[in-house]
């Protein structure tokens, strides 16, 4: 079984921009590529799990998301980093159009994307982490059995106010999350 760090995308890896799908609008949060490279070197699988309700709403399609993920991967490669897998939820329970208007188990705070990744990549969820900027990320991580971290980038500053004591570790950004994760591995050894 392998260890993974599940990462939310918008507001965690890249600057939050409503319904981002064009590569020319993509912008890393400072330090994110180096943080992902550190996870790669430490032997963690890096798995992006992202709610993309813009697909459900008809703002863009899954192919647009795929192209943006190719761009993200290319930008990471230029800095010696990589994402091992991408999972997306294209649904929304109220605002979706046609077949995308469903209450699915893949939309975070449900754990569906994490469980699917674990099954497909042999991931030990109890030895893995979920990092994101929203309560939905924390909930998905906890429900999957991962250790959740909430970053204060993106929506994190607001969502941190909703946390119950001990619900998640709160850190400044993805770089600080990786510091915490790598230190937790040292402390465990």
Automatic annotation (TrEMBL):
How would you classify this enzyme at the top EC level? Answer: hydrolase
Whichever gene encodes this chain, its name is gmhB
Residue ranges annotated as coiled coil are: none
Q: Which UniProt keywords apply?
A: Carbohydrate metabolism, Cytoplasm, Hydrolase, Metal-binding
Assigned EC number = 3.1.3.-
Q: What domain of life does the native source organism fall in?
A: Bacteria
Task: Family membership, please give it.
Answer: Belongs to the gmhB family.
Record organism: Geoalkalibacter halelectricus
Mitochondrion as a keyword of this entry, yes or no, is: no
Gene Ontology molecular functions = D-glycero-beta-D-manno-heptose 1,7-bisphosphate 7-phosphatase activity
The entry's localization annotation reads: Cytoplasm
Name-wise, this protein is D,D-heptose 1,7-bisphosphate phosphatase
